[in-house]
Task: structure prediction
Amino acid sequence: MKCGLWIVAAMMAAGCTAETSGQDAPGPASSPAATPPAVPAMWVLETLAGDAPAPGARFQLKMGVDNRIGGRSGCNSFSARYALNGTAFKVYPPMIGTQMACPEAVMAQEATFRTLLEMATTASVGADGKLTVTSSDSRTLRFASTGEWESGTAGSAAPPMPVPSHIVMRCGTEQLRVRLVDGQAEVVLDDGSAILLPRLSGETGSAETYTNGRMTLERQTSPQHGFRFARGRMAMMPCILAQN
Result:
């Protein structure tokens, strides 16, 4: 009888020990919550949809306190309005910027970069201090912080609006300086004279045509980026980027 009571007591003690151990066992460690990015701040891209920037590409994202973003999108400068509510992030069209031509790999990444910004739904900073911008289709842009504006002025209201710069190109025997802005092309000839070519209205597709009837400039955006130029009824000549 004493032996039976001893066995029951031992079993009850073992059950209590197991129950207590279960209650005291620590749960899995929780990951630190992502936080909204501070503004103003400047970020440099590390990966774009999982890929590293192409050689020669320059990606920067500047977030201003007056709800404007800007920076470099690989080849060109850009600027747009944005809203940030916690980690909810939205970029509003239109996104404006310069229209310089760069190597094909850089231009392809620039198109992806701008698309992902326009599709962005969240922007958050992780425990590693990196900014992740996530698009509606779950692709990401990953940035490292570089601090305040390039000028180093704390509290700057916003990045400056991009100013389109001239593209220097050789089209056949002519060297041209071209700038696309406000729906027209400014073409500076070898003699220094500047000609304004309005863009044709009602165009669709991947080509932009600028002409005054005497000169025509065509900008192709797909499948490859580039320009063609012609005078009068002459055949369009492909243009090659030249050194400034």
